[in-house]
Amino acid sequence: MDAFEVVVEGAQPIPGEIRDKLLEPFITAACTALREMAGVEVAVQGVYRKTLNHALGDIAAVIKLGSASEGFLVLGFPQRTAAALGGRILAGVTPEVDENLIRDCVGEIANVVAGQAKALLAGAPYRFAFSLPQVVMSAQEFQPPPGLDAAVVAFCSEQGGFALQLFLKL
Description:
It is a single chain. The protein is 33% helix and 26% strand. Helix 1 (16-38) packs across helix 3 (99-120). The model has no long low-confidence stretch (mean pLDDT 88). By secondary structure, the protein is an alpha+beta fold.
């Protein structure tokens, strides 16, 4: 298994209530989406809070969260992981998965994760409206507004690692 390298220097633990009521629905949604879409089992490698000014990974899907305050859901993948997942999702549909199809798959994964998380958050104190995903090809293409913390969930799988980031005021 290839671990997604995320810098944890300066990372802080996530308070229990935030992890249980906010992050767990997103974790469950990511695990379910990848199992159903790509036939891939993923495991949580780490959960922490850190001030970040960019998305993690080579390719990321960014979804704006509408709520009382501004926020973002970001799913960031190394290129190799995104290509492997795209190949699994599109197996039997096309013999070659090019850059455009990989971008589409990353956006669709984020869209499904957001939809499942929204359903799981229905009874929780956290409620969001989700925008359509915007896919960016480098960490520098997305920079959250100042003052937002990043709750980071690092995942690993046989196809490689990836990160889910929630940029919110925590």
